[in-house]
């Protein structure tokens, strides 16, 4: 790796550590509300990393969609669902059989090895796009994304809106109390 | 001029986050925590999209991440509705006790 003693590098390392620690805590906390709050910390750290990678639109959308909408929904459902169960969550490792633990360790090691190999020995293939950083900076990231979304990707964009509509109707129909 | 982040570092971070999410899906029994781990895995994939499109000086990564976020939001809405309904029926959201399909 090249020398990481730059401002961006230091911020990246710090945010990466925050994201990893928060996601580990998210998986290992017993209380699902604590898990959800650690998940929000992870989302904020990822958002800072998106900013470092010059994706301002995605960074803001990350905060608004994930940390705002989705996590609020999850927190509400946790409070709705776990009224009787209270603090009694499931511990992440206690009470698992030995077979489960061995399988978990195996899957962890294999998956980690595969991902590390892929990340270390990747070769950047594919064509270079026509949005170099200097050009995007001249128009602004949001405008560049918007031009693509409403130009080249207009049809998928419309389908995404139909998907959202179907999701709204589906959620209401599923959660409705039957009389 | 600020130095750019090498994409390999982003891929490693994304791999670690994806792995943590996958382990969470495997070991947790609370369905909502499993769902949060799936969201974490989606986020790790988003990071790869952004890093790769930045390294290839393309903008398509941002558009794809936008669509992934849309799908994640819809998935969250429908999933939470399903969890509420399951809780109403069985009074639990433990994944081990949802075994209606087991013969």
Describe this structure in words.
The complex is a heterodimer of chains A (179) and B (103). With 179 residues, chain A is mostly helical. Chain A folds into 2 domains: 1-86, NADH-ubiquinone/plastoquinone oxidoreductase chain 6, subunit NuoJ (Four Helix Bundle (Hemerythrin (Met), subunit A)); 136-179. Helix content of chain A is 73%, strand content 0%. Chain A contains 7 helices and no strands. In chain A, helix 1 runs antiparallel to helix 2 (32-52) and helix 2 packs antiparallel against helix 3. The mean pLDDT of chain B is 87. In chain B, helix 1 runs antiparallel to helix 2 and helix 2 packs antiparallel against helix 3 (60-90). Helix content of chain B is 75%, strand content 0%. Chain B contains 3 helices and no strands. The interface between A and B is large, with 92 and 77 residues.
Provide a short characterization of the protein structure.
The complex is a heterodimer of chains A (179) and B (103). Chain A is built from 7 helices and no strands. Chain A has 179 residues and is mainly alpha-helical.
Quick tags:
heterodimer; A: mainly alpha; Four Helix Bundle (Hemerythrin (Met), subunit A); 7 helices; globular; B: 103 residues; mainly alpha; Helix Hairpins; 3 helices
Blueprint of the fold:
The complex is a heterodimer of chains A (179) and B (103).
Chain A: H1 7-28, H2 32-52, H3 56-81, H4 98-120, H5 133-139, H6 141-150, H7 154-175
Chain B: H1 7-27, H2 31-55, H3 60-90
The beta-strand count of chain B equals 0
Which oligomeric state applies? heterodimer
| Silhouette of chain A | globular
CATH topology of the largest domain in chain A: Four Helix Bundle (Hemerythrin (Met), subunit A)
The tally of strands of chain A reads 0
